[in-house]
């Protein structure tokens, strides 16, 4: 029990920093949503249920491009699809039956997932719980501030809040590009497809089309004998 408590508290400490950044990002989301004509209730409910900055901003961007609800939701769903392999990876570290494990899986968010990773496919679920439990209310609270205060776009730009969104995606992209050469190829391919499609289709459709770059990730590399550890070759 002591170890669980320590892990949970450690996760909360990690999550506090993520929550602070998420709070600012959520203010930007709320303000932008109101600027685009969303109701306060719609924006807040979106943050409560979706709880994903990347997916929610993708939804905003697609709808702002007048691409319609279907491409907009498709873009958001494709971005959130990353949680499927993340959930499968953390699954063995969860406990209980299917319902309990599914409930625990709701704590799988980017920062918490990374913080809980122990290596070797193992995760500290209590640390993940602690990291997520402080981020969700901060995200919802930031959205409330954004939609209620509804700061003007001039104020958002003056405070630098308008760069939080692109900086958020840039940070995710740079981190991914360092992981593998295929990530760079996928990013370049996706960007090229999106740029080309923008000549003929709305932004939301172009965003969905850019996901063709992810096909690069389907290529599997078969390890050669030289890649195998010495113990396996012995």
List the helices and strands and how they pair.
Elements (H helix, E strand, L loop, with lengths): L1 H34 L4 H10 L3 H12 L4 H12 L2 H8 L7 H7 L5 H7 E3 L2 E2 L1 H25 L3 H6 L5 H14 L3 H17 L5 H7 L20 H4 L1
Can you put this structure into words, describing what you see?
By secondary structure, the chain is mainly alpha-helical. The chain has one domain. It has 13 helices and 2 strands, in the order αααααααββαααααα. It has helices at residues 2-35, 40-49, 53-64, 69-80, 83-90, 98-104, 110-116, 125-149, 153-158, 164-177, 181-197, 203-209, 230-233, and strands at residues 117-119, 122-123. Strands 1-2 form a two-stranded antiparallel ribbon. Helix 1 runs antiparallel to helix 2 (40-49), helix 1 packs parallel to helix 3 and helix 1 (2-35) runs antiparallel to helix 7. The longest helix has 34 residues, at 2-35. It starts with a helix and ends with a helix. Mean pLDDT is 78; it is low at 220-234.
Feature tags:
single chain, 234 residues, mainly alpha, 2% strand
Shape: globular
Approximate helicity band: 55-70%
Strand content: under 5%
Distance between the termini: 42 Å
Concise synopsis of the structure shown:
With 234 residues, the protein is mostly helical. The chain is 70% helix and 2% strand.
């Amino acid at each position: 029990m002591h170890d669980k408590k320590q892990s949970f508290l450690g996760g909360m400490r990690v999550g506090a920093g993520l929550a602070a950044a998420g709070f600012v990002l959520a203010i930007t989301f709320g303000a932008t949503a109101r600027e685009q004509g969303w109701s306060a209730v719609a924006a807040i409910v979106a943050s409560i249920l979706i709880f994903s900055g990347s997916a929610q901003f993708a939804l905003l961007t697609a709808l702002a491009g007048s691409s319609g609800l279907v491409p907009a939701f498709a873009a958001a769903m494709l971005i959130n699809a990353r949680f499927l392999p993340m959930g499968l990876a953390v699954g063995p570290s969860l406990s209980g039956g299917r319902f309990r494990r599914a409930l625990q899986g709701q704590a799988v968010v980017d920062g918490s997932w990374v913080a809980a990773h122990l290596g070797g496919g193992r995760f500290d679920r209590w640390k993940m719980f602690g990291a997520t439990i402080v981020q969700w209310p901060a995200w919802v609270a930031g959205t409330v501030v954004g939609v209620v205060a509804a700061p003007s776009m001039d104020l958002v730009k003056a405070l630098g809040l308008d760069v939080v969104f692109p900086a958020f995606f840039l940070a995710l992209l740079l981190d991914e590009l360092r992981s593998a050469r295929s990530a760079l190829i996928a990013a370049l391919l996706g960007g090229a497809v999106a740029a080309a499609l923008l000549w003929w289709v709305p932004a939301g459709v172009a965003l969905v089309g850019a996901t063709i770059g992810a096909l690069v990730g389907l290529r599997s590399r078969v390890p050669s004998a030289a890649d195998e550890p010495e113990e396996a070759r012995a």
